[in-house]
């Protein structure tokens, strides 16, 4: 079961901005749903 969870996270698509669809780089502290451009 644990292996399946690891595979699940490995296969997750990159986060995308909910506004423009731009790929968002992982931020270790913030969980953003918008890219920096749309957040401002
Ligand atoms: Zn955006």
Automatic annotation (TrEMBL):
Entry-linked InterPro entries: YhfH-like
Highest rank taxon of the organism: Bacteria
Protein name: Protein YhfH
UniProt lineage: Bacteria, Bacillati, Bacillota, Bacilli, Bacillales
GN (gene name): yhfH
């Amino acid at each position: 079961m644990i292996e399946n969870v690891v595979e699940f996270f490995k296969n997750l698509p990159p986060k995308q901005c909910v506004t423009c669809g731009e790929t968002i780089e992982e931020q270790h502290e913030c969980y953003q749903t918008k890219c920096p451009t749309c957040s401002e």
